[in-house]
Model the fold of this input.
Amino acid sequence: MKYRFVSIFFILLVGVNTASVNAQNNWDFGSWNTLNLNYHLNKNLSVLMTQEARFKSNLSQLNLFYTNIGVEYRSNEYFRNALVYRHIDKYINEDNRFSFRHRIMWDMTVRYPINEKLTVSYRHRLQIENRNIYSSSKGYLAEVYSRNKFTIKYNLSDRISTDVSAEFRYQLHDPRNLESESTWHRNRFMAGINYQASDALEWGAYYLLQKEFNVSLRENLSIIGLELNVDMNRLLKSVRPREEDFYLE
Done:
C-alpha cells in the first residue's frame, strides 16, 4: 500500500507540473549534479561543503558552477540553523564570459517526524547576493530573497527513501528586476528518491520543475538532478587503518 501511495503521488506531481510547463514555449531541460560533504565537529555543530555543476539548453551547454561553504547548528532534533557562503561562476551566453557572484544564505529549518517512516519539514532561507562587483556599476547593490520550502520524506526501507517538496520564492529587493519587487515570482516542485549505499554515502536522484511569473524574462526549467551526500566522519572512520596495519609480520 505504501509503495502504491508514493507512486501515485509522484505521478500526479510530475504529470501536473509537466503539463503546465509544456503549455508554454519558454522552458528548458537541464541537469544539476551535486556533491555534498558534511563533517560533524560535535553533536550540535557541523561544517558543510557543496560543489554543484548545472547544464542547460537540453543538456548541451554549461550553465554554472557553485561552491558552498558553511556551518550548521542543531539546537535539537527539531530545529537547526545554517549560515552558508556560495561562490557562483555563471556562464553568460551573450558576452561569452563568466559572471562571478557572491551569496550569503541563512537557513532556518524545522523538522518533525510524524512516525518512524514519515517526516515533514519547513525551511526558510534568507538569501543576499551580489554579482559582478568589480565589473558592473550595480555590482554592490544586493539582491534579497525570501525562500520557503516544504518537504515530505517517507522511508520505504532502511536504505531507500522518497521525498517531495515545494519551494516558493519572494523577492524582497532586486535592483535589476524592479518589476518583481515585493512579489512572489518563482516556485519549484521536486520529487526524488534516495539510496543509503553505506553509513557514509547516500545517492539521490530527483526530478524538479521551476516556474517563474511576475518577471519580464521567464525561465521555466525541467531538471533531472543527481546527488551524492558524504558523511565525512563516517567515511574517515571506515578508511582509518587499524593499529595492527602499522606492523609488518
